[in-house]
Amino acid sequence: MKKSVLILCAALSLGACSLFPPPYKVPVTQGNLVTKEQLAQLQVGMSESQVTYLLGNPMLKDTFKPNEWHYLYTTRYATPDTKQSDATDLTLTFESGVLTDIQNR
Prior knowledge:
Low-confidence stretches: none
Radius of gyration: 24 Å
Shape: rod-shaped
Oligomer: single chain
């Protein structure tokens, strides 16, 4: 009798957890937040230092392609209030320290 009451209480206790709302998850953002204004100011012919001043340091500089800079942005558990980047995968290509190509995917 005591065992069955204990099992019944345990089953009801565990089932009650589904009645609560899900826990709050903090939005996690990683990368470079690039705005429309920054993208509008970005122009072919800028130097590496000008791009760094405008956008900050890139998220990724490939070892095998040192002339390609990648500005990446990801978000997990985003809410409507979470700031979003206008460029989630921005690739900039340089030749001799001068910006030659802009790809915004």
